[in-house]
Structure formats: structure tokens, C-alpha cells
Amino acid sequence: MTAWEETLSVLVREHGQRLHRTAYLLCGDRHTAEDLVQEAFVRVLGRRRGAAQVTRGMEPYEAEAYLRRSILNLYLDSYRRRRRWAGIRHLAAGRDRVESAAARTEARVDATRALAQLPPQVRACMVLHYYEDMSVAQVAAELELAEGTVKRYLSDGRAILAVSLAEPADADSSRGGAR
Amino acid sequence: MNADDVRSVLRRSIDEGGLSDDGGPDETAIARRVRGARRRRVATVAAASVASVALVGVVVWQAGRLVDDPPPATPTVTHQPSEEPSTAPSTDPSDDVTDEPTGDPGGDPDDWSDAVFPACGDAFAGLPERTSQLVVTEGPGGPTPTGGGPWLTQVRNDGATEISGDVAYAQTVVVDGEGVVVATNDPTSDWFWGAEGSLHLAIAPGDTLPFPVSPTWRCGDSQPLPSGEYEAYVLLSVGEIGVSGPDDLEQAQGGPFPLLVDDDRQPERLPVEPPPGAVEWTTACGDTWSAPEPTTGFALDLEHEIRSPRAASDDIDGAAQVTAGAPVTGVLYNDVVLVRDGQVVTPPPGSDAHVLHALSEGSRVPLGFTSSLVGCDGSTLPAGQYQAVVLTLLAIHDPGSAQGAETYVVATSDVVDLVLT
After folding, report:
1. In chain A, what are the helix, strand and coil shares in percent, each to the nearest 5?
2. What is the ipTM of this complex?
């Protein structure tokens, strides 16, 4: 077993479950979460410098933070890509998968659907602060935002969740969301 | 809603997703992807290295040398592009391959333009006065569909040396009548940086090659560029693998070109043709094998033979060089085809290994070849006697075809016997 494989094994064993859950809370889809986690490992261990850093000079908790940041970046980048893709997708074939993914989202249940109402940056702040138990300052540093912005996002996020979860069931039914 | 309420929502979401009693991500799947990425990276770094050798005074960086598809149980492995099974202890082969510049880069090339990266809203007065060695010479020549593309430009090498390298960032800059940037890629976005070698140029002195320009997006709302009259600049930034920003790049430039966008036009196949003598490749897994015989003048040189016998779990992972027998623009890649009892038994390779190439005649580029030795259904091939051949394939994008591209064989290796144990 090579050095990176040993490192991978340790990281998956010790941090994999938490990273997987964090990714899921960000994207709201189990398979996408798995993909985010896998891609984060590819980013970190698939490159010489990243792998060398992790295998030789990094404590496990630092490696977890490194991976978590990769997941965050991938999640936020994918959102940007989706925005661009939304603009040009009519120029290309293959829309079926996009639509079926949207259909799957519609079928999801309450809490996950409420989280899906959050804008990506807001959602990232909420997950880091309330799930990862990071302070406002830590969240700000992680996302390269001002602390005031993080506080505003957290406040916005709580308000959006409150409204989403307070919506009457028939509102869901009327838009075909509850099945 | 207070903090405890939010935490409760997050816990419920985890329950809803079925992750409460989940054991975590699949280590095997992660390892497979990491291994694939490391193989591709090493191959790409090697490609950049070999191409750079021809680039005296332009860009010099050094990567690991390519070595043979080694026998199993090689005691010590260094500078090896693959993850071949080995009894070597803990040395990570990929870690020994450097993707960093080594020492003096050989001096900055004199003939590159100063790199520019106009952003949305900038007043862009035009390109720097100093002319680049590589020049982007042509605009669309007619109305384009929504988005302002795709269209085919030409890239000309005005210098005395070959230009060869990976295009890390291809940017189209569209300005309005006031010279304000109204559409472009966002050069500050991470999305546009760090792509590992998805475009590769190798242009001989005095040569001109076609190069496809992609659609672009309007500033502000990221919608496709709508109907209107504009001017466009094309910037091709060539640089080291894994670049992190504009300072690491050299840039080919062209424009302004008149750009007329017409929402009523449909995307069309770009007028890129395969080299004469290429053979269309439509064979699928399970089809009867018929050896293609291209007469393109392309040469495929395997740097080592495919080892036989080998275990079916022992993936083929080797290095090769392809010499262009004619100018070519398209996605170029190698496929290892295994044949048994006259039938093709291997599926085509994954598209993530494919790189768009624009090559002058005589350009020589490294192209790896891999096979995971799985059958049409994705399961490991059974033990037995096979024949193996490496094909160099060229895919040309065609929005009208069912697969989105036409594929041609431009070169083949010899057919060899392969025994899987």
C-alpha cells in the first residue's frame, strides 16, 4: 500500500462519515454528497503537492479541515457552474439527467427541502456554524467573508428556514412538492 | 428560530438522507478516483515536459520521464507514470514526478504579448502593442448563434520556434460599441483555473491551425450573449500545469473581430476535417473486430510493449508518443482495444482522459494508453488469450450527431497477443 493509500484509509476511517454528512447538508443529495467527498479526496491526494502535504506534514484534524474546505469550494464552484450551465444548456443535448435530478429534489422531505431554500453561501455558513460548530470568525475565515457578512447570512438563513418550515402542507401540495 | 432549532433541522436532514447510520464514504471508490487522477496528472505533466523541450526560450519546465510498463514486482519504482502493482515498499511513484518549474525557466520569451485578463465592466482599449508570437487571426466571418459561438478561429505562429503547451485558460472578451466588456469568462473564478491540460497546442513556426472558440456569457446575469453587434478578442493563455493565476501564464492574442450574434441561428458543425486517410471509428464493445487501416501518416510509438501474461486485475497503463502526419484539430486520445474470438471485448475509455489538440504536421505529443481490462458489462475480463491493439482516435465535435462527435482512427499500433491469467 502506498503512502497516499494509507493516508486515504486513515482519513476515511476517522473523518469520512463527518465529511460525508457535511457534504450532504450542503448539497442535499446523498449521491452528490458522495461525489463531493470523492472529488475532495481527488483534489487533495490526486496532486503531488497536496498529497505530500497531507501524508507528511499535516495533523489529522488539519487534513480534515483541508478536505472540508475542498468540499466547500467544490460545492460553491458547482453552484457557479450550474448558473452558467443554466444559461447555455439549451445549446446542448442531454437535459434529461438535469430534469430527473430536479424531480428527485422535489420528492425530498421537510428539513432537507427547507435547507434547499437557502442560497449557497448562506447554506455554507449555516452548516459550518451549526453543524461543524465553527465560530463566526472561523466561518468568515473559511469562506473568506467579513464577519458581519457571516452574521447577516446566519440571520437570513434562520429566517428563511423559519418561513420554509412554517409553510402549510397544502402549499407544498399545490406546487407538487409533497408526494 | 434559534440555534437549537437550526441544529435540529440539520439533524433531521441527515436522518432524511439516511446518513444517521451510514458508515461514511466508500473508500474503494475514492481510491479508484484518486488513482485515476494521479495517473492522468502524471501523464499530463509528462506531456507538458516533453512538449517543453522543443520550446527553447519559451517555456521550460521539467517533469518526470516516462518509463516502460514495468514487470510486476519491480523492486524500486521512481518516475513512473502508473500505479502498476509492485512490491516496492512505500514510495509513492507519483510523488517523484515534479510538476514544478525547475531552476531558471530559460528566460522569458521575447515575443509574447503582455498578458491581459479583461473582466466584466472594464473599459478595454485593446490589446497591448507588443505582438505575440502566436497570433489569433480570424473572427467568426459571419453571424453566430446565441452566445456568440462556437466559431472557428485560426492561430498562427509568427516566430522561429515551435510553440507547444497546454492552454490553461481560453478567454473570449466581447466589448460593446463603447469598448466596455459586456461578456466574458470571469477570470477571477476558480472554475477557470487549474484545469489540467484540457487543451493542447503544438504549432510549428510559420504554421496556422484552426482553433474552436466557445460561446460566452453576458456580464451581470450570465445569460448567453444575445443578438447584437459587438467586437471580440480571443486570448489563449498557455502555461504550466495546475496554474493558480495569471502570473504563471503566457498569452496568445487576437482581435478585435466583428461579432454579429443572431438568436435565430442554430449551432453548426465547425468546418474541421479529419486528416486525409483517417478511418471513421464506429465499432462498439461486442462488435466484430475489423482492423482499421488509416493512411494518415500519423505515427503511434508505444514506449514499451504491453506486458503479457498479466493478471486481469493488473491494469494496462503505458506511455506512447504520437507524431502528427498532418495538421489536426480535435480531441486526440488512445484507446486499448482487446479482441477475443474475433469480437471487441472492451468498452471505450472514459471521456475525462480526452484532450483537445491543435497540432502542426510533425508535432510529436505524448499520449498515454490505459485499459482497466474490463468487459462490455464492466466486469473484470476472464482469464484467457486475447489480442490487444492501441488505436489513436480523433473526435471532432458535431452537435448534429447522436454521440455529439464523429470519431476517426488516425493511427494504430501492432496487434499483440495478450494472455490474462
Report:
1. 80, 0, 20
2. 0.77
